[in-house]
Amino acid sequence: MAEDHEAQAILSDSPEGVFGSIFTAGNGDLRHIVVYPCRDFTQVNFAIGIPDSFVHNSGTLSHSWTANGSTDDLLRALQGFPHWLTEVVCHASSLKLFQVRDVKPLQSYFKGKTVVIGDAAHAMVPYQGQGANQALEDADGLGDLLADVDDPSHIPEILRLWDSVRRPRASAIQEQSRDSLLRITTRGTGQSILDVEAHVPIKEVLKQSAS
């Protein structure tokens, strides 16, 4: 997008600094956008959430987790959002559709010597960016607890201990992720939703974490 002169002209009319920050835009009817820079600010990712009814090929998605998106569907889905934002989005190099699903917190992650981890245990919406991290915590915890087991009969008790630690934490993050989605989707439309002064630029966050 950086080499597209038309896109550059559009970007020059957008709020100053908006693409150097994380920002969200929602219109109150479940349509929303989360924008953030990637790869040392050489790319910008637009995660656009829309109900299935806005996608003409939603039937295709019922048989697959992913599908190719279309600019026409995108424009229809973003009606009412600021013009400069929809114009920038339409210059995306690729449009992909991904189903977003979660599950309610489970009562247990194990039974006997059998255990579920990752999305099988705690699928969550991506609004905390924690899905993969939680799977890693599952595996790391199991690895530590099972590393020195020499009697298989001890496994159920070890899994019970692991479940008592991991399940409350993962369940809380599931709920927090869903709450984050609700905060975005219930936000009202208008230019005020793109007030980037309320967002800390990513570079500032990195500086603070390094100090």
Question: Notable features of this structure?
Answer:
alpha+beta; 41% helix; 8 helices; 3-stranded antiparallel β-sheet; 7 strands
Low-confidence regions: 188-200
Please tally the β strands and state the result. 7
The radius of gyration computed from the alpha-carbon positions, rounded to a whole number of angstroms, is: 21 Å
Cα-to-Cα separation, first versus last residue: 33 Å
Q: Spell the H/E element sequence.
A: HEEEHEHHEEEHHHH
What class would the helix/strand composition place it in? alpha+beta
Question: Averaging pLDDT over every residue, what do you get?
Answer: 76
Oligomer: single chain
Helicity level: 40-55%
What percent of residues are in strands?
A: 5-15%
Largest sheet: 3 strands, antiparallel
Number of helices: 8
Strand order of the largest sheet: 1-2-3
- Any idea what the shape is? elongated
Pfam family, one: FAD_binding_3
GO molecular function, one term: FAD binding
Keywords: FAD, Flavoprotein, Monooxygenase, Oxidoreductase
Protein name: FAD-binding domain-containing protein
